[in-house]
Amino acid sequence: MSDQTRPRIVCLSGSMRFFDQILIVAAENTAAGRIVLAPFSIVAAEDQGNAVKRMLDELHFRKIDLADEVIVVTVDGYIGESTRREIRYAEQHGKPVWYEDFGPGPGVAKIELPQPTGYPCALGVFCDECETRIVADILVSDLDDQATRFGYIRAHAIKHGWSCDKRGDFCPDCKPAEVTVNA
Fold this sequence. Notes:
Layout: E1 9-13, H1 19-31, E2 35-37, H2 51-66, E3 69-74, H3 81-92, E4 97-101, E5 118-126, E6 133-141, H4 146-159, E7 163-165, E8 168-170
Parallel strand pairs: 1-2, 1-3, 3-4
Antiparallel strand pairs: 5-6, 7-8
Helix pairs in contact: 2-3
């Protein structure tokens, strides 16, 4: 099977405290005909620095190596240190990084971590078919490169019914039919 005919491979990243949300994103991507790689081991807080945790982190980096892109699953924007390392690793290796946020979760305390100074920036993307444009003010950082900012607006567009993938960017009226895989 050539790279043109094999399904896209996505690697999911995110805190294991959001495992239910990770499973939802895994199911959605599998149903869309993608191969999904995801974390499946939970390490207790007191074991975060041990050899097993380091081995699991390295294993997840290898999953990112295999993937065409990475989807970061968050609840209310929370991204922990392990996930931050995975995002940096993916970006350093040229992997597109997308974000799927589930908003405030029941009983989830948002932990504020130091962030680069951010500022709102109007970002937009055009429909490749009809040239409709979606624009949003998105909080960006001086550290964000063009590809990262493009990922932000594409993730925003997807939440509003757009289709954004290797075929292009399409508004809800123009988006192509999903490819179905017959079992």
